[in-house]
Amino acid sequence: MNYLYLFALCLALVSCSIAIPLGKPTGQPGCQTEAEIAVGAYRHYYLKNQYWVCHALGVPASLATCPVAQAWLDDAKACVYFAQWYWTPTVAPPSQPLAAGI
């Protein structure tokens, strides 16, 4: 009977670690360079209808969403209809947001 509880506990821990990916990169730029501000928008690594926008130097990018039935195309730096969207390799932004407490 104790093995059943131990198994259930292990199963719960594994499912929680899979469901909550801590530290999973999303492509959010830190907006710490002038080049990032000049480019302005970066793709989200996993959500093709969302992208990151740099508004000010030193302020991490904020998340923006394309209109319904559109996705962010990084090559065009714009939202396009799904029929025009194609996959492109992910490229890391020049900087990343600073971790909390640093």
TrEMBL record:
Keywords: Signal. The keyword Signal applies. It comes from the Eukaryota. Residues 1-19 form the signal peptide. This is Chitin-binding type-2 domain-containing protein. It comes from Drosophila virilis (Fruit fly).
